[in-house]
Amino acid sequence: SPPQVIFSGIQPTGIPHLGNYLGALQNWVKLQNSSPPGTKLLYSIVDLHAITVPQNPEQLRRWKRESLATLLAVGLDERKAVLFFQSDVQAHSELMWILSCTASMGYLSRMTQWKSKLALEEGASPLDESSKAKLKLGLFSYPVLQAADILVHRATHVPVGEDQSQHLEFARECVTNFNHTYGGEHLVAPQTLLSPAKRIMSLTDPSSKMSKSATNPSSRILITDSPSTIKRKLASALTDSSNSVSYSPSSRPGVTNLLHLLSAFDSTGKSAEELGMELERSGMGLGAFKSLVAEAVSEGLKGVRERFERVMGDEGYLEGVAERGAVRARESAGETMKIVRKAVGL
Ligand code: ADP
Ligand code: NA
């Protein structure tokens, strides 16, 4: 079978939290270190996606630099994977336009994220006309850019979280529409590689996922947080009134979420359920349990934090990584654009 091409992207919208790390970045590293020789890996910092909502230019520049440092800090290696900024490779935007001309408006308007912006889901009160008129075109059409990101590199496999599978479906729809319109197997339909990781929940509200958009900064742990910050955030994590440890996703979501974190960083490879039983038997209270989780997380992130500080302090190195990545990503995208332009008659 032909070699795999793996593509994934992350938005430069702040330092990743534990959900991003355990749900996405760790899997990227695993794929990098376990893929058979010949596999092409591309990991992009998708800055063009970040501007679908207003950004402060200074802050965006800083976030871009931090994001690249983050990719290196978690263990991605430019010798094994192409690490690049999306906006350095103009073919992403060019293919987006070309795909827009065969993509279906109906399909896009049925997508969950758009419907949630319009508050069209069941139970929500719909937006009024003036709020609707202010919605931006980019927010509607960004799935086409996402499709272009993937298709321009002829990706065969795309690692994503559950929340993104609908977008992969749309990318395949773009392939079908394009190939049908221009009669040929010009673009390659990608497969979804669902992340094996558990969803990490908010520390302050275990019924919602850990997210960078939650207003309370104590609800998430960033992968560069210091041990004392990690300790403080875990100490204030919402659990329940029973002063003991046990695993129960339905009746003890807070404690169970912390057990998932402990298991993710526990070097013995024990599951959250096993750890829960062990700690229940030992009679550990919640205070000691939170300290234990804090130590495991701090220890597990130590290398990440140190590498992050080191590369952030070396501006020239970061620029070099970005430049080398851009050259290789342009080359990869250029091959597809030749095929696409020829098929379309451009
Ligand atoms: P956020 O919700 O913080 O805005 P994104 O939507 O940008 O995060 O997600 C980036 C990646 O991280 C996606 O692959 C997503 O599936 C994963 N991810 C985000 N939050 C979590 C979480 N709480 N648990 C597991 N994975 C997550
Ligand atoms: Na999100």
Automatic annotation (TrEMBL):
It is found in: Mitochondrion matrix. GO terms for cellular component: mitochondrial matrix. The keyword Coiled coil does not apply. GO terms for biological process: mitochondrial tryptophanyl-tRNA aminoacylation. Keywords: Aminoacyl-tRNA synthetase, ATP-binding, Ligase, Nucleotide-binding, Protein biosynthesis. CDD domains: TrpRS_core (cd00806). It catalyses: tRNA(Trp) + L-tryptophan + ATP = L-tryptophyl-tRNA(Trp) + AMP + diphosphate + H(+). Transmembrane segments: none annotated. Belongs to the class-I aminoacyl-tRNA synthetase family. This is Tryptophan--tRNA ligase, mitochondrial. It comes from Phialocephala subalpina.
